[in-house]
Amino acid sequence: MGRTPTRVRELVKRLVERVASEARVLRFHIRNRYVRDPLVDPSTNCVVSLTSHGRRVRRVYVSIESIGRGDVLPSRAVLWLNDPDTVANPPRSLRRLARRGLELRQAENFGPHTKYFPYVIDTEATMPLVTADDDVVYPRDWLADLLNSYNDRPDSVHCHRAHRVSINEDGIAPYQTWPPCRSKEPSMLHFATGVSGMLYPPRLQAALKERGREFESRCPRADDVWIHATCVAQRITVRQVAVEPTHFPAIKGGFSSALMRMNLFDGGNDLQIRATYSPEDVAQLRSADDDIALMSHPSD
Question: Are the CB atoms for 123 and 183 separated by under 8 Å?
Protein backbone atom coordinates (compact mmCIF):
# COMPACT_ATOMS: atom_id res chain seq x y z
CA MET A 1 0.00 0.00 0.00
CA GLY A 2 2.80 2.38 0.86
CA ARG A 3 4.26 2.19 -2.62
CA THR A 4 1.13 3.37 -4.43
CA PRO A 5 1.36 7.09 -3.53
CA THR A 6 5.03 7.08 -4.52
CA ARG A 7 4.23 5.54 -7.90
CA VAL A 8 1.39 8.00 -8.45
CA ARG A 9 3.65 10.93 -7.62
CA GLU A 10 6.27 9.60 -10.03
CA LEU A 11 3.69 9.23 -12.80
CA VAL A 12 2.36 12.74 -12.17
CA LYS A 13 5.92 14.10 -12.21
CA ARG A 14 6.63 12.43 -15.55
CA LEU A 15 3.35 13.73 -16.98
CA VAL A 16 4.13 17.28 -15.87
CA GLU A 17 7.63 17.05 -17.36
CA ARG A 18 6.23 15.76 -20.64
CA VAL A 19 3.62 18.52 -20.85
CA ALA A 20 6.29 21.14 -20.07
CA SER A 21 8.60 19.69 -22.72
CA GLU A 22 5.86 19.71 -25.36
CA ALA A 23 4.93 23.28 -24.41
CA ARG A 24 8.54 24.34 -24.98
CA VAL A 25 8.57 22.63 -28.35
CA LEU A 26 5.33 24.36 -29.36
CA ARG A 27 6.70 27.75 -28.29
CA PHE A 28 9.82 27.34 -30.42
CA HIS A 29 7.82 25.88 -33.30
CA ILE A 30 5.80 29.11 -33.41
CA ARG A 31 9.01 31.13 -33.21
CA ASN A 32 10.52 29.13 -36.05
CA ARG A 33 7.47 29.68 -38.24
CA TYR A 34 7.02 33.40 -37.71
CA VAL A 35 10.19 35.09 -36.37
CA ARG A 36 12.60 36.45 -38.97
CA ASP A 37 15.20 38.02 -36.69
CA PRO A 38 18.86 37.21 -37.46
CA LEU A 39 20.27 34.15 -35.74
CA VAL A 40 23.82 35.56 -35.75
CA ASP A 41 25.60 38.81 -34.95
CA PRO A 42 28.87 39.34 -36.89
CA SER A 43 30.17 41.66 -34.17
CA THR A 44 30.24 38.86 -31.57
CA ASN A 45 33.55 37.10 -31.16
CA CYS A 46 32.49 33.44 -31.05
CA VAL A 47 31.15 30.52 -33.09
CA VAL A 48 28.42 28.12 -31.94
CA SER A 49 28.65 24.59 -33.33
CA LEU A 50 26.45 21.52 -32.90
CA THR A 51 25.52 18.32 -34.69
CA SER A 52 22.46 16.16 -35.15
CA HIS A 53 21.52 12.95 -36.93
CA GLY A 54 18.63 10.68 -37.84
CA ARG A 55 15.18 11.54 -36.53
CA ARG A 56 16.66 14.11 -34.15
CA VAL A 57 17.31 16.43 -37.11
CA ARG A 58 13.60 17.28 -37.21
CA ARG A 59 13.69 18.68 -33.68
CA VAL A 60 17.16 20.22 -33.54
CA TYR A 61 15.58 23.54 -34.54
CA VAL A 62 14.23 23.80 -30.97
CA SER A 63 17.74 23.97 -29.49
CA ILE A 64 18.90 26.36 -32.22
CA GLU A 65 15.89 28.64 -31.74
CA SER A 66 16.59 28.76 -27.99
CA ILE A 67 20.13 29.94 -28.78
CA GLY A 68 18.78 32.41 -31.33
CA ARG A 69 16.57 34.20 -28.79
CA GLY A 70 19.56 34.71 -26.47
CA ASP A 71 20.77 37.99 -25.02
CA VAL A 72 23.97 37.52 -27.06
CA LEU A 73 24.09 35.90 -30.50
CA PRO A 74 27.09 34.10 -31.99
CA SER A 75 28.94 35.50 -34.99
CA ARG A 76 28.38 32.12 -36.72
CA ALA A 77 26.06 29.19 -36.00
CA VAL A 78 27.02 25.89 -37.66
CA LEU A 79 25.02 22.65 -37.74
CA TRP A 80 27.02 19.61 -38.88
CA LEU A 81 25.05 16.84 -40.60
CA ASN A 82 26.34 13.49 -41.83
CA ASP A 83 23.72 12.88 -44.50
CA PRO A 84 24.37 14.81 -47.76
CA ASP A 85 20.71 14.48 -48.75
CA THR A 86 19.65 16.24 -45.55
CA VAL A 87 22.12 19.06 -46.20
CA ALA A 88 20.80 19.41 -49.78
CA ASN A 89 17.14 19.12 -48.77
CA PRO A 90 16.79 19.97 -45.07
CA PRO A 91 13.50 20.10 -43.15
CA ARG A 92 11.55 23.33 -43.48
CA SER A 93 12.48 24.31 -39.93
CA LEU A 94 16.18 24.28 -40.85
CA ARG A 95 15.58 26.05 -44.16
CA ARG A 96 13.96 28.89 -42.22
CA LEU A 97 16.93 29.02 -39.86
CA ALA A 98 19.36 28.97 -42.77
CA ARG A 99 17.69 32.11 -44.13
CA ARG A 100 18.43 33.73 -40.75
CA GLY A 101 22.11 32.77 -40.73
CA LEU A 102 22.42 29.08 -39.76
CA GLU A 103 25.15 27.27 -41.72
CA LEU A 104 24.29 23.70 -42.72
CA ARG A 105 27.50 21.77 -43.27
CA GLN A 106 28.15 18.16 -44.20
CA ALA A 107 30.74 16.26 -42.18
CA GLU A 108 31.98 12.73 -41.70
CA ASN A 109 30.27 10.98 -38.80
CA PHE A 110 32.57 11.33 -35.79
CA GLY A 111 29.79 10.51 -33.32
CA PRO A 112 29.55 13.09 -30.49
CA HIS A 113 32.91 14.53 -31.60
CA THR A 114 31.18 15.87 -34.73
CA LYS A 115 29.99 18.92 -32.79
CA TYR A 116 33.57 20.30 -32.68
CA PHE A 117 36.02 18.21 -34.73
CA PRO A 118 35.08 19.22 -38.32
CA TYR A 119 35.30 22.85 -37.25
CA VAL A 120 38.70 22.67 -35.56
CA ILE A 121 40.38 20.70 -38.36
CA ASP A 122 39.22 23.24 -40.97
CA THR A 123 39.86 26.43 -38.99
CA GLU A 124 42.82 28.43 -37.72
CA ALA A 125 41.54 29.26 -34.25
CA THR A 126 41.25 32.97 -33.59
CA MET A 127 38.06 33.12 -31.52
CA PRO A 128 36.30 30.93 -28.94
CA LEU A 129 34.22 27.98 -30.11
CA VAL A 130 31.06 27.10 -28.17
CA THR A 131 29.43 23.70 -28.57
CA ALA A 132 25.82 22.84 -27.80
CA ASP A 133 23.71 19.68 -27.78
CA ASP A 134 20.82 19.08 -30.17
CA ASP A 135 18.24 18.12 -27.52
CA VAL A 136 18.55 20.90 -24.92
CA VAL A 137 16.66 24.18 -24.49
CA TYR A 138 19.16 26.89 -23.54
CA PRO A 139 18.21 30.00 -21.51
CA ARG A 140 18.62 33.54 -22.80
CA ASP A 141 21.80 34.22 -20.81
CA TRP A 142 23.46 30.90 -21.80
CA LEU A 143 25.98 32.29 -24.28
CA ALA A 144 26.46 35.61 -22.49
CA ASP A 145 27.48 33.81 -19.30
CA LEU A 146 30.02 31.66 -21.14
CA LEU A 147 31.54 34.68 -22.89
CA ASN A 148 31.67 36.75 -19.70
CA SER A 149 33.51 33.92 -17.97
CA TYR A 150 35.87 33.59 -20.94
CA ASN A 151 36.63 37.31 -20.96
CA ASP A 152 37.58 37.02 -17.28
CA ARG A 153 39.80 33.95 -17.85
CA PRO A 154 40.62 33.56 -21.57
CA ASP A 155 43.14 30.80 -20.82
CA SER A 156 40.50 28.35 -19.53
CA VAL A 157 37.71 26.17 -20.87
CA HIS A 158 34.30 27.39 -19.66
CA CYS A 159 31.11 25.45 -19.02
CA HIS A 160 27.79 25.55 -17.19
CA ARG A 161 28.09 22.05 -15.74
CA ALA A 162 31.13 20.13 -14.52
CA HIS A 163 32.19 17.30 -12.26
CA ARG A 164 35.29 17.14 -10.10
CA VAL A 165 37.57 14.25 -11.04
CA SER A 166 38.20 11.95 -8.09
CA ILE A 167 41.63 10.40 -7.65
CA ASN A 168 42.30 7.27 -5.59
CA GLU A 169 45.30 5.04 -4.98
CA ASP A 170 44.68 3.22 -8.27
CA GLY A 171 44.44 6.39 -10.35
CA ILE A 172 41.20 7.92 -11.65
CA ALA A 173 38.19 6.75 -9.63
CA PRO A 174 35.01 5.45 -11.35
CA TYR A 175 33.12 8.18 -13.18
CA GLN A 176 29.92 7.81 -11.17
CA THR A 177 31.80 8.62 -7.95
CA TRP A 178 32.86 12.05 -9.17
CA PRO A 179 31.01 14.79 -7.27
CA PRO A 180 29.45 17.83 -8.93
CA CYS A 181 31.73 20.83 -9.27
CA ARG A 182 30.78 23.50 -6.75
CA SER A 183 33.28 26.21 -7.53
CA LYS A 184 33.95 28.98 -10.02
CA GLU A 185 37.68 28.57 -9.60
CA PRO A 186 39.49 27.13 -12.64
CA SER A 187 41.10 23.72 -12.14
CA MET A 188 42.38 20.79 -14.17
CA LEU A 189 40.32 18.58 -11.85
CA HIS A 190 37.12 20.11 -13.22
CA PHE A 191 35.60 17.95 -15.94
CA ALA A 192 33.24 19.89 -18.23
CA THR A 193 30.13 18.13 -19.51
CA GLY A 194 29.08 19.32 -22.94
CA VAL A 195 25.34 18.83 -22.52
CA SER A 196 24.94 22.30 -20.94
CA GLY A 197 27.37 23.93 -23.37
CA MET A 198 31.13 24.36 -23.41
CA LEU A 199 33.48 27.10 -24.61
CA TYR A 200 36.82 26.08 -26.16
CA PRO A 201 39.52 28.79 -26.14
CA PRO A 202 41.70 29.03 -29.29
CA ARG A 203 44.58 27.22 -27.56
CA LEU A 204 42.43 24.15 -26.94
CA GLN A 205 41.12 24.20 -30.50
CA ALA A 206 44.69 24.18 -31.80
CA ALA A 207 45.59 21.26 -29.53
CA LEU A 208 42.57 19.25 -30.68
CA LYS A 209 43.51 19.92 -34.28
CA GLU A 210 47.06 18.73 -33.66
CA ARG A 211 45.89 15.52 -31.96
CA GLY A 212 43.72 14.74 -34.96
CA ARG A 213 41.64 11.59 -35.03
CA GLU A 214 43.35 9.82 -32.14
CA PHE A 215 40.06 9.92 -30.21
CA GLU A 216 38.61 7.32 -32.60
CA SER A 217 40.75 4.58 -31.04
CA ARG A 218 40.48 5.81 -27.46
CA CYS A 219 37.10 7.36 -26.66
CA PRO A 220 34.95 7.41 -29.82
CA ARG A 221 31.70 7.84 -27.86
CA ALA A 222 32.92 10.20 -25.12
CA ASP A 223 33.84 13.63 -26.45
CA ASP A 224 33.88 15.12 -22.93
CA VAL A 225 36.60 12.64 -21.95
CA TRP A 226 38.74 13.59 -24.96
CA ILE A 227 38.29 17.31 -24.33
CA HIS A 228 39.30 16.99 -20.68
CA ALA A 229 42.26 14.71 -21.39
CA THR A 230 43.50 17.23 -23.95
CA CYS A 231 43.13 19.99 -21.37
CA VAL A 232 45.21 17.99 -18.88
CA ALA A 233 47.90 17.27 -21.49
CA GLN A 234 48.07 20.98 -22.34
CA ARG A 235 47.77 22.21 -18.71
CA ILE A 236 44.52 24.01 -19.53
CA THR A 237 42.12 24.54 -16.63
CA VAL A 238 38.32 24.23 -16.69
CA ARG A 239 36.06 26.83 -15.11
CA GLN A 240 32.36 26.49 -14.29
CA VAL A 241 30.58 29.80 -14.81
CA ALA A 242 28.62 29.58 -11.53
CA VAL A 243 29.26 27.97 -8.17
CA GLU A 244 26.51 25.42 -8.76
CA PRO A 245 26.33 23.32 -11.94
CA THR A 246 23.36 23.90 -14.23
CA HIS A 247 21.39 21.28 -16.14
CA PHE A 248 19.04 22.83 -18.69
CA PRO A 249 15.67 21.36 -19.80
CA ALA A 250 15.82 18.58 -22.36
CA ILE A 251 13.62 18.10 -25.37
CA LYS A 252 11.47 15.01 -24.81
CA GLY A 253 13.48 11.82 -25.30
CA GLY A 254 16.90 13.46 -25.30
CA PHE A 255 18.44 11.89 -22.23
CA SER A 256 17.18 8.34 -22.88
CA SER A 257 19.60 7.90 -25.75
CA ALA A 258 21.66 4.75 -26.12
CA LEU A 259 24.83 6.84 -25.89
CA MET A 260 24.02 8.12 -22.41
CA ARG A 261 22.99 4.68 -21.15
CA MET A 262 26.19 3.17 -22.51
CA ASN A 263 28.53 5.85 -21.15
CA LEU A 264 26.98 6.49 -17.76
CA PHE A 265 25.02 3.46 -16.65
CA ASP A 266 26.87 0.67 -18.47
CA GLY A 267 30.37 1.85 -17.54
CA GLY A 268 31.30 3.07 -21.01
CA ASN A 269 32.87 6.25 -19.66
CA ASP A 270 35.20 4.29 -17.37
CA LEU A 271 36.37 2.07 -20.24
CA GLN A 272 37.10 5.09 -22.39
CA ILE A 273 38.75 6.98 -19.54
CA ARG A 274 41.18 4.10 -18.99
CA ALA A 275 41.96 4.06 -22.71
CA THR A 276 42.47 7.82 -22.94
CA TYR A 277 44.40 9.25 -19.96
CA SER A 278 48.13 8.55 -19.99
CA PRO A 279 50.13 7.86 -16.81
CA GLU A 280 51.47 11.41 -17.15
CA ASP A 281 47.90 12.75 -17.27
CA VAL A 282 46.98 10.84 -14.12
CA ALA A 283 50.11 12.12 -12.37
CA GLN A 284 49.18 15.67 -13.33
CA LEU A 285 45.67 15.22 -11.93
CA ARG A 286 47.04 13.68 -8.74
CA SER A 287 49.39 16.65 -8.35
CA ALA A 288 46.48 19.06 -8.77
CA ASP A 289 44.52 17.07 -6.18
CA ASP A 290 47.44 17.20 -3.75
CA ASP A 291 47.78 20.96 -4.28
CA ILE A 292 44.11 21.50 -3.42
CA ALA A 293 44.42 19.31 -0.33
CA LEU A 294 47.48 21.29 0.77
CA MET A 295 45.66 24.60 0.35
CA SER A 296 42.68 23.24 2.29
CA HIS A 297 44.85 21.97 5.15
CA PRO A 298 47.98 24.13 5.37
CA SER A 299 50.63 23.00 7.77
CA ASP A 300 51.20 24.90 10.96
Answer: no
